[in-house]
Amino acid sequence: MASMLEFRTQGFNPYAVKYSPYYDSRIAVASSANFGIVGNGRLFALGLSAQGIQVEKTFDTNDALYDLAWSEINENQLVVACGDGSIKLFDLGVNDFPVMNFHEHKRETFAVCWNPVTKDSFVSSSWDGTVKIWSPTRNQSITTLPIGNCTYSTSFCPSNPALISAASTDSHLRIYDLRTPPSAKYHLVSSIPVHAPQTLPGAPAQPASAPAEILTQDWNKYRDTVIATGGVDRVIRTFDIRNPAGGALSVMPGHDYAVRKLAWSPHASDVLISASYDMTVRLWSDGSMQPAMNPNGGPSVGRQLGVMNRHTEFATGVDWCLFGMGGWVASVGWDERVLLWDSNMLMAGR
Amino acid sequence: MAEASCSGGTPFKQFLDQQNRDVSHHQDRLFHNSFSPAQSSFRSSPANQPAQVQNDFGAFMNGSSSQFGSAPLQHPHHAAGMLPGHPQAFESRWHPSAPSPQVEMAQQPRSADMSNWAADFTRFSSQQQAPAHPMAVNGAAQPLAHMQSNHQAPALNFQSAFQFPNAGFSPLYGPTNGGLMDPSAAAAQRPAAEADFDQEMSRWMEANGPASNAKAMEDVDAIMEQMARELDINEGAFKDSETATPLHQDPRFTDLETPEIRNLTPDTLSQTINNEPQVDQVKPRSEISEAAEKLLDTVQNEQGEKWKNSVFLSLMRDFRDGKKDIVDNEVQVMPYPSAEETEGGLCSPR
């Protein structure tokens, strides 16, 4: 295994890690005391230097932090999702306190994502069953999208600012298009049953799997209609949102416990990385670069490219570095560690 | 050519250019209609709102505002209150054939309140109002169909702010109902209304006025005397039963080990308190304890070093075994029960 850079978030268990979209040497980590069960949260802004990973700034919050997103329009700002339902906007130039506080969610806010295209808004999802769209300049949300049950993950499409995806406990991946009139289904344009049996014309029906909570999802950075999901059933699946009833494009079984976080590579269209409650981080290829292997037309089975086994507690967060040669990733786990490592070592045999 | 590429030379031409400019692309803006209350996502009204607004206003002018008084004040931009669970619920909400929720509210019988002065007036005014205003609803007695035939449109929310107890004849707001009723019609109704009002007021004062109060005060002395006599009788009967049946023979009131309250000394009091923890033994386990047990059951087959050394799983074991618990929003160590306490049946923390 290649050498790693390591940082300890002493006393706090990380939930999420994100590279800055502006600097290759800046990373932020959202963490919580007592594994997020009870207690405070701490946001770490870390910088990479010749001396290793060093703290640039920390911000403490009254409640646990579950996710974060860097601002796409201000290199010093980022938002965090708090256990008390609030979203806080911190500025690295301002000490101690957030510069904005957005509090409408009734329960834990569990995910935030900044709009990467228009850069003027961000989206959040919560256990209160809603997804909210915010502007960083106003305290009230711009739009609320009803989901109806715990929504663990939401994100903007990386190529279309009007498309939002949301994954929730009811085993559905929902797609919202803000260009549609809100009166119809509150912008809901597609609802993909992740665990439904696959129905393809002229092909035998694929068996359904038991519905399970979806904990994470991410848009492919090259194929803007493809989304990967992961969750309690331990299997990573990819879907084409243009064919909601078509079932999964590919499946990637291999994790021993629930998949907590996944992220598509910004450098390769078929590569993604996942962090799991089995304490591993795994690298995958969804097989889209290979010719179709399944003659029945069912989902192709992806390939595991490698396993990173250094975390000693649940692996909870992972992210790709946007810069350089590509392949550097950051992973965090409840072992109070932030690990930066080169995934190219795992992909050597690809 | 220059004129086509540059703006108009005169203000009038600029105005024409402005009018002729294609603004259809504005509809594709991300938040094209989020700021418009009429089209905002959660309380958007049906397309025929202007006609309904006119109907509502007509209904209001006809003095039926109290029909809508029971409709709750709704917040036009609040999402959480609109979450019955699933998007389908929202679809039916605005289906053309679906009755308006506010109409449904108004259709529910309103219980007659006989408890106070204002209610008497409300009842009175309703009785008087019914023949003069066929469209006005007389509380619970008004048929449903009448309501539907005249008021299909949802009520305007502002009407709840104008919830007069008797819209047509309120002595508090004048016969014109605060200026909202036709003055000529009000003038025609005034003599009869005032005569009825005087008659009803005198009747009410007869029943509830100072004379009746004086009579009531006289009755108080008699009532107090009777209560004193009953108290003497009851005390005598209790003493008789106490001498006939000793308390220690009645299992419902005491037992052999429990001293009577009047015989308690500090020693017996502490002894009694020490015997109380019998209740703690059946105290249900904490929520975190049960959750920890379920989690540990899930991973009980894991034998790897990581799983054995996991700090998180160790914490879960402590929660499960009652060694730790969440007290006052903190994880606290609970003292172990000593051997003597365990033998003595004491399981509660010291």
What count of helical segments of chain B does DSSP give? 15
Computed structural class of chain B: mainly alpha
Strands of chain A, count? 29
Q: Which sheet architecture does the biggest sheet of chain B show?
A: 2 strands, antiparallel
Oligomeric form: heterodimer
Fraction in beta strands of chain B: under 5%
Strand order across the largest sheet of chain B: 1-2
Under CATH at level 1, the class of the largest domain in chain A stands as: Mainly Beta
Please compute the radius of gyration of chain A using only Cα atoms.
19 Å
* Percentage of residues in helical conformation of chain B: 40-55%
Overall mean pLDDT of chain B stands at 52
Number of strands of chain B: 2
Strand order of the largest sheet of chain A: 18-19-20-21-25
Helix content of chain A: under 10%
Tally of distinct domains of chain A: 2
Number of helices of chain A: 1
Q: At the third CATH level, what is the topology name of the largest domain in chain A?
A: Methylamine Dehydrogenase, Chain H
Order of helices and strands of chain A: EEEEEEEEEEEEEEEEHEEEEEEEEEEEEE
Q: Which structural category fits the helices and strands of chain A?
A: mainly beta
Mean pLDDT of chain A: 91
Q: Work out the largest interface and the residue count of each chain.
A: A-B, 43 and 35 residues
Protein name (chain B): Peroxin 20
Region (Disordered) (chain B): 36-113
Biased composition (Low complexity) (chain B): 36-47
Keywords (chain A): Cytoplasm, Peroxisome, Protein transport, Transport, WD repeat
General description of the model:
The complex is a heterodimer of chains A (350) and B (350). By secondary structure, chain A is mainly β. Chain A folds into 2 domains: 141 residues, Methylamine Dehydrogenase, Chain H; 149 residues, 7 Propeller (Methylamine Dehydrogenase, Chain H). Chain A contains 1 helix and 29 strands. In chain A, strands 18-19-20-21-25 form a 5-stranded mixed beta sheet, with no helix packed on it. In chain A, strands 1-29-28-27 form a 4-stranded antiparallel beta sheet, with no helix packed on it. In chain A, strand 27 and strand 28 form a beta hairpin. Chain A is globular. The two termini of chain A are 16 Å apart. The mean pLDDT of chain A is 91. Chain B is an all-alpha fold. Helices cover 49% and strands 2% of the residues of chain B. Chain B contains 15 helices and 2 strands. In chain B, strands 1-2 form a two-stranded antiparallel sheet. The termini of chain B are far apart. Classes of the chains: A mainly beta (350), B mainly alpha (350). Chain A: InterPro entries: PEX7, WD40/YVTN_repeat-like_dom_sf, WD40_repeat_dom_sf, WD40_rpt. Chain A: Belongs to the WD repeat peroxin-7 family. Chain A: This is Peroxin-7. Chain A: Keywords: Cytoplasm, Peroxisome, Protein transport, Transport, WD repeat. Chain A: Its main location: cytoplasm.
